[in-house]
Amino acid sequence: PKDLFEAAKIDGCTRFQFYYKILLPLSKPPMVTLGIFSFLGSWNSFVWPLIVTSDTRLRVIQVGLSYFSSEAGTKWGPLMAASTLTILPLVIMYFLAQRQFVESQAMTGMKE
After folding, report:
1. Structure pTM?
2. Rounded distance, CA 104 to CA 67, Å?
């Protein structure tokens, strides 16, 4: 933003210092949020790995969860246990990056 650059210029910042000390810290929370959403998109992929892989050892865990259902019925106990283990990395990642996620939603950098 132009106002931030002008304020930094008045304080004696060079262009490099402006990027390093002002824009980079302001960009960190949105970048973490983008990383979380990108990871979630990749983690939750089902159709693409199902189409591309022919070997069951190479498939992702979400495709493996579908094997708990068959024509004979669904094995609900093992399916729920495996689903809990599947969600666990996402929950841990969210709790580790929660502060960054909230800051990206609340922080704009300018008060007008």
Report:
1. 0.61
2. 38
Read off the DSSP letter of residue 71: T
Structure tokens at 87: 């969600």
Task: Supply φ then ψ for residue 108, to 5 degrees.
Answer: -115, -25
Please tell me the distance from the alpha carbon of residue 112 to that of residue 110, in angstroms, as a whole number: 6
Partners of 73 in beta bridges: 70
Q: How would DSSP label each residue in 26-57? A: HHHHHHHHHHHHHHHHHHT--HHHHHH--SGG
Cα within 13 Å of Cα(33), Cβ side: 14
pLDDT digits (tens, 9 = 90+) for 8-43: 888 888 889 888 888 888 888 888 888 888 888 888
